[in-house]
Write a structure and sequence with these properties.
Elements lengths: L11 E3 L5 E3 L3 H19 L6 H21 L17 H14 L9 E2 L4 H24 L6 H24 L5 E2 L3
Antiparallel strand pairs: 1-2, 3-4
């Protein structure tokens, strides 16, 4: 099987279910942003990350792929596959991870700027792409049906990346950079 199909050469792409839409359709922009986030999470996993955090980041990557397939499914043509359904436990798992990480950090009294360490800065990149994905999901909700669980997932995920950025900046001997207002 060839990697290229030539079916997208005129600006359209296929959805799960067989529908074709323009490549700049809000749905494509949305799951493309989720895919971009997944790529940056993959880059983050190449940093010096402890095993527990690495395992959780891999879980996030799988969940992002699940969400991408959910967003790419034209449910007017086909039912969602089980593999495309995000489970509520995913949100409680993120909340537990946030609580575990925050318990290891000093109290936050100021706004933190991205930077301080390479891993910490990369967590901030993941956080900002997560926020963009969340905005795209709201755009998509104006046109297509999107379950609120997906919105909540991205809201928690950005908080997770913020907490993780603080943790790895401090673990790697960096200093948090506080905003001077």
């Amino acid at each position: 099987m060839k990697l290229y199909t030539k079916t997208g050469d005129k600006g359209q792409t296929g959805l799960i279910g067989g529908s074709r839409v323009m490549k700049n359709d809000v749905r494509i922009e949305t799951y493309g942003t989720v895919d971009e986030l997944n790529s940056f999470v993959g880059l983050l996993t190449c940093q010096d990350i402890e095993a527990q955090d690495l395992d959780f980041l891999r879980t996030i990557q799988h969940q992002l792929f699940t969400i991408g397939s959910y967003l790419a499914t034209d449910t007017s043509k086909v039912e969602l596959s089980t593999a495309s359904i995000l489970k509520e436990e995913a949100i409680s798992a993120i909340e537990s991870e946030i609580d575990r990480i925050v318990a290891q950090l000093p109290e936050l009294k100021f706004f933190v700027l991205p930077g301080g360490s390479q891993a910490g800065a990369l967590c901030h990149v993941c956080r900002t792409i997560t926020r963009r994905a969340e905005r795209r999901i709201f755009d998509m909700k104006e046109v297509y049906n999107v379950e609120n669980l997906v919105v909540v997932y991205f809201n928690r995920l950005s908080d997770y990346f913020f907490a993780l950025s603080r943790l790895y900046t401090l673990r790697n001997g960096g200093e948090e950079i506080f905003w001077k207002s």
